[in-house]
What we know:
The complex is a heterodimer.
Chain A: E1 41-43, H1 53-57, E2 63-67, E3 80-85, H2 94-98, E4 104-106, E5 121-123, E6 134-135, E7 150-151, H3 178-181, H4 194-201, H5 209-213, H6 220-228, H7 232-240, H8 246-252, H9 256-260, H10 272-281, H11 285-292, E8 303-307, H12 311-322, E9 326-330, H13 339-342, H14 351-363, E10 367-369, H15 380-386, E11 389-392, E12 398-399, E13 412-414, H16 415-424, E14 434-437, H17 441-458, E15 463-467, H18 478-486, E16 490-493, E17 495-503, E18 506-519, E19 525-538, E20 541-544, E21 548-549, H19 557-562, E22 565-566, E23 569-570, E24 583-585, H20 595-615
Parallel strand pairs in A: 6-7, 8-9, 8-11, 9-10, 11-24, 13-20, 14-15, 14-20, 15-16
Antiparallel strand pairs in A: 1-4, 2-3, 3-5, 12-21, 17-18, 18-19, 22-23
Chain B: E1 3-8, E2 20-26, E3 29-36, H1 44-47, H2 57-60, H3 68-83, H4 89-118, H5 121-142, E4 151-152, E5 155-156, H6 164-176, H7 179-187, H8 190-196, H9 204-209, H10 214-218, H11 226-229, H12 250-273, E6 295-303, E7 306-314, E8 322-326, H13 329-341, H14 349-355, H15 360-363
Helix pairs in contact in B: 3-4, 4-5, 4-12, 4-14, 5-6, 6-12
Amino acid sequence: MDKKPKNLRPLKALRYLFKKPKTLRYPFELKEPAERYRGLHLNDWDKCTGCGNCADICPNEAIEMKEIAEIEPEKGEKNERPEIDYGRCCFCGLCVDICPTGSLRLSRDYLHIHFDPNTFKILARDEKTDKEHFLPEEEYSIFKASLAHRKENYEGFAPDLIYALFDPERIPMSQIPPEERKTSFIEQVKGFSQEEATREASRCLECKLCEDACPAGMDIVDYVRNIWDNNLEGAARDIYKTNPLPEICGRVCTHNCESACALGHQGEPVSIRWLKRYALDNIPLEKYQKVLGTEEIESIGKKVAIVGSGSGGLAAAYYLKLMGYETIIFEKLPKPGGMMRYGIPEYRLPYEALDKDIEYIKSTGVEIKCNTTIGEDITLKDLRNGYDAVFISTGLHLGRSTGVSGTDHTDVFQAIEQLRKVTMGEEIKVTDKIVVIGGGDVAMDISRTLVRLQLKKFGTVDITVSCLETRDIMPATPEEIEEALEEGIDLYPGWGPEEITIKDDKITGVVMKKCLRVFDEEGRFNPEFNEEETMELKGSMIVEAIGQAPDFTFLPEEIKKGLEYEGRRIKINEYGQTSLPWLFLGGDLARGPDVINAIDTGHKAAKGIDRFISKNE
Amino acid sequence: MREVELYFGPQHLGMVGNFSITLKVEGDRILEATSNPGYLHRGFEKLMEYRTWIQNFPLVCRINVVEPDHMEMVYAMAVEKLANIEVPERAHWIRSIYLELARVGSHLFGLWAYSNMLGFDTVAQWAMYHRDLILDLFEELTGGRVYHIYIWPGGVRRDFPDGFANKIVKTLHSIGKCVPDYDDTFFNNPLFYERAHDIGKITQEEAKEWGGVGQVLRATGVPYDIRKVEPYAAYNKVDFKIPTREEGDAYSRIWVIRDELIESVHLIFKLLDNLPEGEVYNRVPNPFKWRVPKGEAYVRVESSRGELGLYMVSNGEDKPYRVHFRTPSYPHGLTILEKVLKGASIADVGNAMISLYVVAPEIDR
Lengths: 617, 365
């Protein structure tokens, strides 16, 4: 094998002298980069939420989130945008693959010609919002190519959900199927197993957009991380920092956090609500005080009275108790919980879950006096004299009526009242054909409650729900609407009632007219109808669920006069403090209506009351 | 005659890469040679302990500038082994095709280095141009020309773009057409023979004893190749040959490289013919919440320079606890090079070194 070759063949190479050279004469001859080229960044500012995941994953710390004053962030977004330091960037594209909104891409541009090294840093933009630096083909010149002189429509390495570094799909929650669940009031959602919870928690990117969106400002990232770590006690401690009703919120919260979740932009948000529920479901009530360190709370000898044992009242009582105040809650109804017990049906929020949260709060020493009506059993004046401060969170327990002709008929009911009666174990009127008016969560709650009662009584379901809003702007949460439809209700969105038809003193239905718009240009509630287009919904009984109102009859006149008002609402400061410094207001009366807002007002009021009592502010 | 100590490199004709050899010479005969690594120490193994499992991807490929792809592969394999991640079938095949393309590119680069050092500038230019065509393929597939960051745990980062298989075939054919020119001008050139034969000669026993792998070992007649010994990716699904020679000198090593280059091209064609359809990526956990289970792994691949191994320890955290690479250039550049240079002439230092396929960044990690 080892043989010395002998020939003149190498001279063959001479013929290459007469071939065209392969070298490109840059910059006059350019090579077009490939379609997937990983060049300079592009960022769609309209899509970008400022979540900062790109900055977190960058292995070179080349990305810094910069606050942009001109951007007014939407709820659950930040006005920060990534700034890329091209002195550090290695063009790996991890930032593209982690971007949950898909706003960040790489272009095929790769040139930066400039005498100033400080120009290596630039806020990533694209031609959509930055016409100045992204130029059409004819205006672009390679001799000026830089981070601020770029070609438009020059997309390169693009995000792709299949290869994304995050998981866009959530772990499905096991639920009782509609056919089965509508036969009873058993809880519909089954809850996560440990494996499911760990996997779901592992999807969280820890960008904290959810925390900004949460009305109570919960430490969501911390507790989701603890759940992922299977440290449920740690998760419980994180949760109780800002929310003393997690079993309830873990079921019925309006989950603003999930709406803000970065993963929701291209996929499904993390099931933060179900995760919270999972954490607390798996800690027995007996261990709560030990886990949360509330076995012994030293009293500071001050007393606060709380009116109403709903979410606002319970939250205020708990946090005041933690600060050492003696707190007592006065509740008109036979059991504590307010709207959570008497408004939300059992299949959404079973009483055991509700009781677990309340029992824990009671175990810390909060006293709850039920069947006690202010103004009858005890007056506000007594509270004023006997306590250092008073917190009122009586909620919105009055229903509103549409006021159309026929609403004074005895078979026209208010949803709120009916729901309360169901909880109290009273029998409510159920006919075989019912019309519900309203498109909010209460309308869905009463419809689905009636589905169950109708099915039990008649074996069939015939419930029609109609509301002013079209399906896309219905105020009820989408999953509630979906579940109601699954259970067999008929939905007519976009119609308003004209009159209730009554024949022989019996209701036969409602005449509806087409709703053209619900809100006017200024965003105020001001519906407009097409009187010509009408239809009749048949039914022998009507339930109205179009809104709730507060009941202030327990407030004595002199106090009502002493308060300042903003429009029709009582004026309060950020702590819920009214113009009478000892009187605080919270719950649905202040914000909402929903549980998590009420909890936050309770928590803030607790801080305000402490401020008032200890510093007299 | 007087003994003189000479520094050969890091700036010296015939020296490629940031590497130097201290030579003790008498006249132009080398009495003793000592390799001096350390000019390119970047501390990769330590850096990797401070980066998360995913963040290490853009890093590992930079260890070997010439051939980043096998570094990616070996790291992905170690993570997959530790975390028990399955890779889809198609991804295995794509990985093999991709790694063989890397081998072709790397061998062409090696050919440039060697022929350039010998003064065969024409061939060197051809090889560099043809390597560029391979880089064009990489650019189209991955978006990067040199650092591709393409293989990662769970599969590969993107599937083939439309018509990519045809492009590979076309490009390889256009390079293949020039093989006769390469042969006539370089491999069968008497000048190459004169310059290379008997340079840096080692026996089979010596190669084994001194830790020789890859071409160094195969040029002494041992058909040792990890792709056969411990098949990974799709290498056990297709048939291919392991070229060997008997002489153990620079000439035979370069010939092994040439034959391997051609065999790799044939291998790519076979892989492309049987490329299965399907997914190419099994999602790995969210990088911010990814802990690889406690354990240790040793994995190895056949890089274009020989056996490339990676020993990695995880103590169940979001970052590796310890990473160590066993790179082929390490024994070649530090042990064998010192041995073969003893008694050689100064003019043959670069020749011997490049024929051993030493790449300095692999030694200094």
